[in-house]
Amino acid sequence: MDQSKTQTNLPELLVINPSPVFIIHQQQFSQKFKLLKAYESPLSTDLFLQTNAQSTKALICYGKSPVTTNILNLLPSLQLVVTASTGFNHIDLDKCRSRGIAVANTRDVFSEDTADIGVGLLIDVLRKISAGDRFVRSGNWTANIQYPLGSQLGGKHVGIVGLGNIGLKVATRLEAFGCKISYNSRQKKPVPYNFYPNVGALASNCNVLVICCILSVETRHMIDKDVLKALGKDGILINVARGPIVDEKELVNFLAEGEIAGAGLDVFENEPKVPQELYSLDNVVLTPHRAAFTEEAFSSAFQIILANLEAFFSNKPLISPV
Amino acid sequence: MDQSKTQTNLPELLVINPSPVFIIHQQQFSQKFKLLKAYESPLSTDLFLQTNAQSTKALICYGKSPVTTNILNLLPSLQLVVTASTGFNHIDLDKCRSRGIAVANTRDVFSEDTADIGVGLLIDVLRKISAGDRFVRSGNWTANIQYPLGSQLGGKHVGIVGLGNIGLKVATRLEAFGCKISYNSRQKKPVPYNFYPNVGALASNCNVLVICCILSVETRHMIDKDVLKALGKDGILINVARGPIVDEKELVNFLAEGEIAGAGLDVFENEPKVPQELYSLDNVVLTPHRAAFTEEAFSSAFQIILANLEAFFSNKPLISPV
């Protein structure tokens, strides 16, 4: 089969910047669509859109490839925006609505995996798994060096900050380990957990905080000096949401000074930059923003994106409109 | 208060070799008992017992400090053996029974923590938490080096080998993550999980094996070449039971050759020796036999041991006789 000939008959799909899901499934996308890759062009994005995408009807984006008013203005034929993510606040939804541009997301395919990483990081910090692995690999165990005791997960009072899809899944998992669950959220929810309208009060009453909320103007640096102080010397912070929700400079100080007991961090303020002061600490576990990164979740996301695009190009209803 | 004078009035407690729980709570024991420490004496154990322990009524032991017929024969006044463990097959129970020596254990204080380590190791292997932590600390993330996808815990078919206290707790925890549970055990149990009378068949039908059984003549090297082959290239082995249940040499070969996908190991055949071939593998997580090592479990164990000893010396019924 002549690939290049086939490509020209395929519907166009614009990719301004590629999401991890797109990168992993790029070949499959290229079999179904003629890909317009702005990021591979020597032209500026604006010029690329003006030159190559004036008749383009569909665009795929993600959190780090926002769809702004400016971009929408440069795409007069656009009828569909698909995001390779659950969240869609990187898309100018009002402008899309007013132009009649449809928007689709990947549903809730990443929340189970994100909750799993949250629980995994907590077990790891309490039970010193990564630190224990370093201890074994360094040969210290064979040298009969003593290793400190861990701390029990069962009985811990865990405060979930943001009880959405992910927060709820963290809660149900931790209940199976015998944890007591409380939460902070914009409003009280119909759940059997204690509600704290104030995150500082939640921190005061919990051994562990698990950050699961969205990043917004309200939540930026919400976990500040006061909250960390309220969490206290025996407290543990887990962040599987977004780095800037935590005042990272303060967190590093609290960890270095032993003013909180430990942290499990999948996200950071200036990724992929991680504060070097954390590298030498045994009471922190650092993962490279991998909460949603499983083969299965990426495959599910790909299937949903593809189903939306195929529905759109055959004039059928979208699978997951937002 | 004159400590030395007080000590002489305290009841005697014989310690042939100190358990981790005894070491951590040694000071508290020494406030309540006159400790006879065979392990600190220049005398051989036999000679120490013959010289210093002829009137000793109580002994504290643990798995690595067995109470054999020989030891019992050297202790004519012994009336109580307390073990700092749940298991007691290191104690010659028949001989104790025939001599009227009471035996007490620490109840089931370690099984929750052991189950937690089992789940923590599994999440870690699937989601590459320890490897991710190494990746971040090495600066590779900041250098924008790509990191592979993990594998989803939800939907995995997990086979529990040995459905006792620990195995059951691993099962209920993993159910909360959306895993499907099967098990192998000496006999079928009244549980809602698939029973496989044969561990090879269990391995063939599962993505993950979690070893939770006791070490016995029957279970030594039960996880052999055939079982690992049945587990297969995508399979993961977790061992929180005892090292010799697995043929470690075969396991190392299977891991090095990619014939199974990964392993989380808290126990090894010749602890604290760990096969050096494992040190360079990113798909294994190695912890230094820490499954039961939390402050809370050790404190609970100490309280139960103390309660048994105090009951014995005041002629009250033991708290946890076996």
Automatic annotation (TrEMBL), chains A, B:
Domain D-isomer specific 2-hydroxyacid dehydrogenase NAD-binding: 119-291
Domain D-isomer specific 2-hydroxyacid dehydrogenase catalytic, first and last residues per copy: 42-322
SUPFAM superfamilies xrefs: Formate/glycerate dehydrogenase catalytic domain-like (SSF52283), NAD(P)-binding Rossmann-fold domains (SSF51735)
Keyword Transport: no
Domain of life of the native organism: Eukaryota
Swiss-Prot/TrEMBL keywords: NAD, NADP, Oxidoreductase
Keyword flag Transmembrane: no
Recorded GO MF terms: glyoxylate reductase (NADPH) activity; hydroxypyruvate reductase [NAD(P)H] activity; NAD binding
InterPro entries, per database record: D-isomer_2-hydroxyacid_DH, D-isomer_2_OHA_DH_cat_dom, D-isomer_DH_NAD-bd, NAD(P)-bd_dom_sf
Gene Ontology cellular component terms for the protein in this record: cytosol
Sequence similarity: Belongs to the D-isomer specific 2-hydroxyacid dehydrogenase family.
Name of the protein: Glyoxylate/hydroxypyruvate reductase HPR3
Organism: Capsicum annuum (Capsicum pepper)
